[in-house]
Task: structure prediction
Amino acid sequence: MGSSARHSRLTARPRRPRGLRTRRSILDRAVALASLEGLESLTIGRLASALHMSKSGLFAHFGSKEELQCAVVEAAKDIFVRQVMLPAAGLKGLRRLRSLCENWFRYTELQAFPGGCFFSAASLEYDDRPGKVRDRILELMQHWLLDLEETVREAQAKGEVGREVAPGQVAFEIHALAMGANWRSRLFRDSAAYSSARRAIRMRINQIAQSGRKDK
Amino acid sequence: MGSSARHSRLTARPRRPRGLRTRRSILDRAVALASLEGLESLTIGRLASALHMSKSGLFAHFGSKEELQCAVVEAAKDIFVRQVMLPAAGLKGLRRLRSLCENWFRYTELQAFPGGCFFSAASLEYDDRPGKVRDRILELMQHWLLDLEETVREAQAKGEVGREVAPGQVAFEIHALAMGANWRSRLFRDSAAYSSARRAIRMRINQIAQSGRKDK
Result:
């Protein structure tokens, strides 16, 4: 799949309803709150008290806790797309792979979410909670992993990466190293973990680039 | 620090009180339950209902929820020590490093805990919950990471690994890859993630072993 299909898959969304600005500003706060306290703790009541709004006012925007949580997941996805995916749009192969990884680190360092990467936390919180929220998080995480994998495959097609490299394996490793950095920085309050992950990921990408040069 | 100090650091425990067998069998069930439902959900009431015991009977063993949770952490540590650390006792350097990693995978595959690696889950659950339970989990995770790091350093001292390798970086990567496998297997119900992590870790250890040969 090419970059445009990949892009539309992540950015496609329904036409925006009225009252967008209010809804958007509510969701910005809701995403921040969910990243700090967990998505499952984000109820209409909790959000109303954090925003000094009435519960009925929030119910007008989001009919239920689940609808609110799903809207928060979409808002977090928009942030991810804007900060990680869009700056890599138009790039291909190894350049795209390096860009996606560097953008991910910048987005984490800039603390797009005050409580660390929203998707790393939410995916762990929901691994055992079946339902719409889990299904959507799972789908988005799968898109991200597949995008990394397809980008490695694209690099192979361009002759930048050797044929013996397994794209799914590389995607797994990049993602695992990033998750490990999140974990370590959260548990030990140790932001150096991101430098370790970045070093490891750059080294791994350099290795697969090396394999491409050997093939020639 | 040598292997014996490492060993005693993880295995030292207070003298066992009477009623050990009952306490032990209660804890076995409690660890399994906590690995499935989360350590924070493990209350005296929840455990009493799972074991068909009276709450007062459990209070006699564990005075409070926090005491119960701390006891569960120690019981989980005992399982980890028995399955991961002890089979590597007496080994040094690269052999010890390979053994620790292979034992970790075997312990995960044998499902020592029905809900996946207890410590991966608990450390994420407690990263934002200050208290005794978090402190102990953090301490145990730090021991494990330091042990991996010291083992790489030991391998350097034996000339098995090149001087340019950063032991902390290797420990970070091994641990991150294992965490990533846990995450993926839990979220996608995809046990192939462990094979990916094992492949990546073996490759990384082979690389650092290679660096040792180049030094000679």
Notes: The longest helix of chain A spans residues 132-157. Chain A has one domain: 3-215.
